[in-house]
Design goal:
The chain is α/β, with parallel strands linked by helices and 376 residues long. Helix content is 46%, strand content 20%. It has 2 domains: 179 residues, 3-Layer(aba) Sandwich (Rossmann fold); 187 residues, Dehydroquinate synthase-like, alpha domain, CATH 1.20.1090.10. The chain is globular, with a radius of gyration of 20 Å. The structure holds nicotinamide-adenine-dinucleotide (NAD) and zinc ion. The site of zinc ion has 5 residues, from helix 10.
C-alpha cells in the first residue's frame, strides 16, 4: 500500500467497498507530482488519456502530465470547452472521435481532470469507448471532490432533461488534490458546501456541529478543516454507495435538497443558478417541508436555517416562478407512479425516504427558501 507520508506529502486514503470493483480515494495537498507513480503502483494501466476542460487545462494539466512522464506512462490529452452546456452527446462524440484518432484501445485508461461536468462526461466516454475502458477521477472542484467523483454515476444531459443519458461505471481510483481548490472561484466553493451540508444533515450530527464551528475556516480554504471535511464527506458518500450502488433504496437519500434543487435549476434553464446553489436552496425548502410534515422539530429547523444563512449565496433570485418550479418537480425522474418521494430530515443527521408529505406546503417552502437569501 502507498504510505501515508511520502517525500513530505501526507496523504489520506479511503476505500469504496464494492467487492471486486472496490477502489481507493486519495486525499492530499500539492501531490499531483505523485499521481503517475501511484497509478503505476496500483497497476491501473500503461497508457492514459487525460480529459479536461479549457479552464482546468490552463491551471492544472501541466503537473499531471509531468507526473505521467516522470513515471514513464504514455499520456495524451483531450481538452473540451468548459461548462454545463458542454455536457452533451455532441461533446461526448467529439471525445470518442479524438480517442479513436489517437489510436486509443481497450487498455487505454481515461483520466477525468476537472469538475463534475468533466467527471460525468469523461466517465461516460470511458463507459462507452469500445464497450468500456478503465477510468480515474481527478476532481478539481470542491463539489466534485466531496460528491460527484465517487459512486460511478456518469452521463450527459439531453435538451429534455439533465443527466438523462448515462451509466454506472465506477472509477478505478479517485485522486483528490486539495491544492487545486486555490484557483477555484469562491462561488464554486459555496456550491461544494451545499453537498457537504447535505452529507452532514442526512447522516452525521457531529459532522454538522463541526461545520457550524469551522465554516469561516472552510470558506478561507484552511487546509486542516478542508481535509477533515473532504474526508468525512467522501466517507459518507462511499458508505452509502457501497450499500446501494445502483440506487435501489438508500442511495436516494443523497437526493436530499435535490428534488427542489433540480426543479430550481430546470425552471431557470440552468443559467441563473449553479447546481450547488440550487441544492443549497433545495436543502432549506426540503427542511421546511420536513418541519411542516411533523418530521423535523422546529428548533432543529431553525438551527439548520441559521447555519445555511451564514453561507454567502450571491445570486439573483428574482423572477423565479414558484408554479414553474412545482411543474419541474412533477417531471422529476424520481417521481414514481405519480408519487414524489422525498428524502426528508427526521432530525439533524437523520433522513428518511417518503412519499407521505403534504403537497400544499411545497409552494410556501420554495418561497421561504428564495426569500431567505434575497438581497434587499
Ligand atoms: N456523478 C455524480 O454523482 C454527480 C454528483 C453531483 C453533481 N454531478 C454533476 O456535476 C456537475 C457540476 O459539477 P461542478 O460544480 O464541479 O461544475 P463544473 O465541472 O462545471 O466546474 C465548475 C467551473 O469551475 C471550473 N473549474 C473546475 N476546477 C477548477 C479549478 N481547480 N480552478 C479553477 N476553475 C475550475 C470549470 O471549468 C467550470 O467553469 C453537474 O453537471 C452535476 O450534474 C454529478
Ligand atoms: Zn448534487
Amino acid at each position: 500500500m502507498f504510505s501515508q507520508e511520502s517525500d513530505g506529502v501526507s496523504m489520506e486514503t479511503l476505500k469504496v467497498d464494492l467487492g471486486a470493483r472496490s477502489y481507493p480515494i486519495f486525499i492530499a495537498a500539492d501531490a499531483y507530482a505523485k499521481l503517475g507513480e501511484v497509478l503505476k503502483l496500483y497497476k491501473i494501466g500503461a497508457r492514459f488519456v487525460v480529459i479536461t476542460d479549457a479552464v482546468v487545462d490552463r491551471y492544472h494539466a501541466e503537473p499531471v502530465l509531468a507526473s505521467f512522464k516522470a513515471a514513464q506512462l504514455r499520456v495524451d490529452k483531450i481538452t473540451v470547452a468548459e461548462g454545463e452546456h458542454c455536457k452533451n452527446l455532441q461533446t461526448l462524440e467529439s471525445i470518442l472521435g479524438e480517442m479513436l484518432h489517437l489510436g486509443c484501445d481497450r487498455q487505454t485508461v481515461v483520466l477525468a481532470l476537472g469538475g463534475g461536468v468533466i467527471g460525468d462526461l469523461a466517465g461516460f466516454a470511458a463507459a462507452t469507448f469500445m464497450r468500456g475502458v478503465a477510468f480515474v477521477q481527478t476532481p478539481t472542484t470542491l463539489l466534485a471532490q466531496v460528491d460527484a467523483s465517487i459512486g460511478g454515476k456518469v452521463g450527459v444531459n439531453h435538451a429534455l432533461g439533465k443527466n438523462m443519458i448515462g451509466a454506472f461505471h465506477q472509477p478505478r481510483l479517485v485522486w483528490i488534490d486539495t491544492a487545486s481548490l486555490r484557483t477555484l472561484p469562491p462561488r464554486e466553493i459555496v456550491c461544494g458546501l451545499a453537498e457537504i451540508v447535505k452529507h452532514a444533515l442526512i447522516r452525521d450530527r457531529q459532522y454538522f456541529e463541526f461545520l457550524e464551528a469551522h465554516l469561516p475556516a472552510l470558506l478561507q480554504l484552511e487546509e486542516a478543516a478542508l481535509v477533515k471535511t473532504i474526508r468525512r464527506s467522501c466517507e459518507i458518500k462511499a458508505e452509502i454507495v457501497a450499500r446501494d450502488e445502483q440506487e435501489a433504496g438508500e442511495r436516494a437519500l443523497l437526493n436530499f435538497g435535490h428534488s427542489v434543487g433540480h426543479a430550481l435549476e430546470a425552471a431557470t434553464h440552468y443559467q441563473q443558478l449553479r447546481h450547488g446553489e440550487a441544492v443549497m436552496l433545495g436543502i432549506l425548502a426540503e427542511a421546511y417541508i420536513a418541519r411542516e410534515a411533523g418530521l423535523l422539530a422546529a428548533a432543529a429547523f431553525t438551527r439548520i436555517e441559521n447555519f445555511l444563512k451564514r453561507i454567502p449565496l450571491n445570486v439573483g433570485l428574482d423572477g423565479i416562478s414558484i408554479t414553474i418550479v412545482e411543474q419541474c418537480m412533477a417531471f422529476d425522474k424520481k417521481a414514481q407512479q405519480g408519487k414524489l418521494r422525498l428524502a426528508l430530515l427526521r432530525g439533524i443527521g437523520e433522513a428518511v425516504l417518503t412519499a407521505d408529505w403534504p403537497r400544499e406546503v411545497l409552494p410556501p417552502a420554495i418561497q421561504y427558501a428564495l426569500q431567505s437569501w434575497r438581497r434587499d
